[in-house]
Amino acid sequence: MPERAVLPKPVQDPHPPMWVTVTSPGTELDAADRGLGALGVATAGFVEQERRLKEYRRRIQLCDPVGSVVNDQVATLNFLYCDEDIEQAARYGNALIGQFGQANSHLLFTREAYPTRAYGLLANISPGGGRRRTPAETNPGQTVNLPEGMAIGDPDRIVDVVREWESLGVDQVNFMLNALECIPHENVLKSLRLFGEQVIPKFAASS
Predict the structure, then answer these.
(1) What is the per-residue pLDDT across 43-91, written as a single tens digit (0 to 9) for each?
(2) Ramachandran region of residue 137, left (φ > 0), alpha (ψ -120 to 50) or beta?
(3) What's the confidence (pLDDT) of residue 116?
(4) Distances in Å between the alpha carbon of 15 and those of 11, 104, 124?
(5) What is the H or E stretch that residue 98 is in?
(6) In the beta sheet, which residues pair with residue 172?
(7) CA angle 80, 171, 155 (to 5 degrees)
(8) Beta partners for 76?
(9) In this structure, are strands 74-82 and 172-176 parallel, antiparallel, or unpaired?
(10) Domain boundaries, the chain
(11) Beta strand 19-22 with 151-153: parallel, antiparallel or unpaired?
C-alpha cells in the first residue's frame, strides 16, 4: 500500500482524550470507572446534573483507566437561541426543544408502530399544529416560558445560565442550534452572531 497520511492518527503521543456518549443516567458512572470523559447528549436540570457530576468526579478518582490518559471531563448538551427580544427567544427556543424531543421520541424510543387513528392527534403537538397554550396558561404570572438551565433568552440570561453550569463543574457545553429546520436559517445565524458578540466575550478570560 502506498504511503499516505491518515487523520486522525489512530496512535499518537500524547494519547488523545477518550469519551463515552452518555444518553442514560448511570452511563457517566461507567465512563468514570474506566477513566473516560462523559459526553452528555441528554438534557437534565441543575439539581440532577449536579448529583451525577459529583458521583462522576468521586468515581473517576478510583478508576481503572482503559486508556493511557484519564480524561476527567464532563460535557453537557444544551439548546441555544439568543435574541434581545426575550419573547422571541422563548418562542423559537421552545420550538427547538419541542421539535428535537418529538423527533427523538420517534427515532430513538419507538420500536413498533400500530394501526390506529390516534396518530392524527400528533398534529396538536407538532410545530404549528393545533392550539398551543400560552406561557401565561402554562406558568401563571409569567409572560414567557424559559426552561431551567436552557440557554434560551437574551444575552444576559444566557450568561447567567452558562455561569450556573460552570459553577456545577461542567467543563464543556455543546449547543443544539436547530432541529429539523424548525428555525429559519437566518434566525439561527442572528442568534449565533448575538451569542458571539455579547455572550462569548464574558467567558474569554476563563478560557
Answers:
(1) 777 888 899 999 999 999 999 999 888 999 999 999 999 999 999 999 9
(2) alpha
(3) 60
(4) 7, 34, 50
(5) helix 86-104
(6) 75
(7) 30
(8) 173
(9) parallel
(10) 19-72, 77-203
(11) unpaired
- Residues contacting 98, CB < 8 A, separation 6+: 125, 127
Note the Cα 149 to chain centre separation in Å. 10
Q: What are phi and psi of 118, to 5 degrees?
A: -70, -20
Would you say 79 and 100 are in contact if contact means Cβ atoms under 8 Å apart? yes
In whole angstroms, what is the distance from residue 135 CA to residue 88 CA? 12
What is the DSSP code string of 107-174? III-------GGGGGGGGTSTT-SPPPPHHHHSTT-SS---TT-EEESHHHHHHHHHHHHHHT--EEE
The 3-state DSSP class for residue 21 equals: strand
Give the torsion sign (CA, 153, 155, 23, 189). positive
Residue 75 DSSP SS3 = strand
Q: Residue 71 corresponds to which cell in the numbers above?
A: 480524561
Cis geometry, peptide bond prior to residue 8 (ω within 30 degrees of 0):
yes
Alpha carbons 51 and 46: distance in angstroms, whole number? 9
Pairing of strands 74-82, 151-153: parallel
Tell me the three cell numbers of residue 187.
434566525
